[in-house]
Amino acid sequence: MIDEEILHKIVGRENVSHEETVLEEYSSDISFVQAIRPDYVVRPRNAEEIFNIVAQARETETPLVPVSSGAPHFLGDTVPGVGGSIIVDLSRLKDIVHIDRKNRVAMFEPGVTFSELSAAVAEEGLRLNMPLLPRRSKSVLGSLLERQPVIMPKYHWDIADPLACTEVIFGTGDIFRTGAAAGSGSIEEQWAAGGTQKEAAGPNAASWYRLIQGSQGTMGIVSWVSARCELLPRLEEAFFVTGSQLDKIMETMHWLIRLRLVNECLVLNNTCLAQIMTNEGAENVRSLKKDLPPWILFFSIAAYEYLPEERMYGQKKNMNELTQRLGVETVQALGGITADQFLKTAQHPSAEPYWKLRDGGGCQDIFFLTIFDHLPGLIRTMHDSAHKAGYDVEDLGVYLQPIVQGVNLHCEFNLFYDINDPREQARIRDLTHEATTRLMNNGAFFSRPYGESAEMIMNRDAASVMTLKKVKAIVDPNNIMNPGKLCF
User: Fold this and answer.
1) CB of 383 within 8 A of CB of 375?
2) What pLDDT does 283 receive?
3) Which domains does the chain have, with CATH numbers?
4) What is the pLDDT of residues 399-457, one digit of tens each?
5) Sign of the CA dihedral running 72, 75, 77, 79
């Protein structure tokens, strides 16, 4: 264990805590991961302090758990996997290092939230390709490293987007830059030479950022990232398409993306939409839900600086021709909710309380990647598992997000429950395990395994586990970086 006085010298006495109440906050989260209390929480201010913490951790073989987002946490990845750990809370690293409108890229540190970065890039005429309603305390860097799906598939070219470059301090203590940032000279020298930290691949032919994304802090601590941004539109208009079955809705979504007509584009069931659009308690959620159809496709059309009115006219004309051919109808209001109102909601972090916690205070997510051909069967599998567990499928939230230009789908099931009911918690825990197993057996691809399910998911791919362990031994030979997570 690192001596407390050494920690004081590195980050300052006021930024080291071992108070019982503070340690208890970091010992568990809303997931079902076993609670383990850390020994200390340290709050560095810059990469140099992170480097010094890692160096001391190597010498003393002290486990480190990096955390960049504020509570509440949901996935179990920030709960220590072993005793004697130190939480490295990166929330003080708040610098927005650089915004480049010409090249549509922003560079920022781990403590920057979506509200803070969105406001900063908007001043330069840019916006973020955001996930759906992140919580207000969510770190943008954390979201990018977790590969959370973003709601504008039109600008999603690779599974890693919109992440560009990173600076990571590996468990060896080495500071490493990925992508275009790995070029010669300092970042400032690269800027002076006209370089931009936008290309993710590299250095050389390797895509090192893929090693860091999804690793849950088991490889190193990231001190900054850069991310691709998009232009703010001059005009935009939003629409709903509804239905009792998914087939027409998914076909419409496919063609809207394929013809590159839409920006934001996603599908929700009525439970999810009701949860998002009301924050006045469970009864109001259920009341709104009664006025909503089972499935809702939401999308927006936008125009930019040049000839915005002409562009909007042409895109709406193409949209109308498409919907007529498919036999569906667009509407701009639904159960008292306007499409423009939902658009504005989706372009910002969630209002408080966080939308997933408005009905009972607890939510367990099951999410994976799939293709449309498999989707109906996977939804039936989830419904069957919920029914057998005694969970009302009418209360199940479903969120479908096309990604990578609509080539595949992020499918997410939200299990809302009463967090103060131990029996309900146990039922949801058992249901999560059972449903995850059955979904995997039916072709669901769990690309981001967390918590209790991670070991079960990763053990199905022995070759990948063996490769990851070899890489881990290179970049973190002392196994100090978030041990006990994934397959480590």
Assistant:
1) no
2) 73
3) 1-232+456-488 (3.30.465.10), 235-346 (3.30.70.3450), 360-448 (3.30.70.2750)
4) 999 999 999 999 999 999 999 999 999 999 999 999 999 999 999 999 999 998 998 99
5) positive
Query: What is the dihedral angle through the alpha carbons of 147, 53, 92, 484, rounded to the nearest 10 degrees?
Result: 40
If you write DSSP's letter for every residue of 291-352 in order, what string do you get?
Answer: TS-SEEEEEEEEE-SSSHHHHHHHHHHHHHHHHHHHT---BSEETTEEHHHHHHHHTSPPPS
Q: Residues of 240-262 as b/e, b for ≥16 C-beta within 10 angstroms? A: bbbbeebebbbebbebbbeeebb
Q: What is the pLDDT of residue 281?
A: 66
Q: For the whole model, what pTM was predicted?
A: 0.96
Q: CB neighbours of 27 closer than 8 A, spacing ≥ 6? A: 35, 36, 37, 38, 79, 80
Backbone angles phi, psi at 232, to 5 degrees: -70, 130
Pairwise CA distance, residues 74 & 350, whole Å: 15
CA distance 86 to 58: 13
Give the C-alpha separation, 256 to 4, whole Å: 57
Q: What is the dihedral angle through the alpha carbons of 194, 200, 205, 211, rounded to the nearest 10 degrees? A: 140
- How far is it, in rounded angstroms, from Cα 426 to Cα 432? 10
Q: Tens of pLDDT along 320-350?
A: 999 999 999 999 999 999 999 999 999 999 9
What was the pLDDT predicted at 276?
A: 96
Q: How many CA atoms lie within 13 A of 331 on its CB side?
A: 14
Enter the DSSP assignment of 113. B
